[in-house]
Design a protein that fits this description.
278 residues, two-stranded antiparallel sheet, two-stranded parallel sheet, 7 helices, 8 strands, globular
Amino acid sequence: MFGGAQQTTPPSKPDSATQSAPQAPSPDPAAPKDQQAPADKGKGTKSTNNNNQGKIAGTSNDRLFYTLPNFLSVENTAQIPPLTTKQKFAVVARGTFDPVEFPWWGILSAIDQADNSEPAYGQGWGAFGKRYGTTAGDSLVENFMVGAVFPSVLHQDPRFFQKSQGGFGSRAWYAVTRILVTRTDSGHSQFNYSEIFGSATGAAISTFTYHPRSTFISTPTNPHMFIGSDRTLVNAADVWATQISLDTVTIVVKEFWPDIHRKISKKARQPQVDTANP
């Protein structure tokens, strides 16, 4: 599992009839009650939008550690419209089929092969290909279930809204609880059915469809070694728990990545001091 999508418009000059009217406070982006209307379009908005907005409106162009897609994380979200069903599927597809994902799946498959994960596949390039296909399938199914299918059916927002304010403990706790709490399309807080049941559905689909059945394989010491099926409830539950754990860690990284990014960028922009000629 990974920039801001806030649109801002310079305030117009108030007239005499409304100049003295008190301004309503902006909602806390960490726990909004209602979704705010999108900001008016203007020159200022266009500039900010071009710099921060993702290819799909309401998403970002951010990448964790400048590499892994982080298009569903957004900052400064007091005024941001909900995603349509089409947009939810489009942004998940954009992240899932990003060019970076293909070598990443290869790395994960190589690790599984070295650990002899799912031994029914055996070893060799053919076995590696099977593990690669399984890894890619697991990622695809889980991403679409959690980020598109369930959010569309249940009208939940698949984006992670970074808090970006407060101390480390407060922000870390906020990030961890997002695995259980999310926004609806209307901006209210709700139990994160999409994450919990979406990942469970993804684990069940992958486990009981294309993971290996029980089989016999030949080894140097045993030409007829029996390998039990991976299509079990225990294995599905293990996959589900692993996905929830990884998603929780990823959300915490997403919360603090903008701070890390800004510090790295600031350090890179600092002028070099000429010690020979101070």
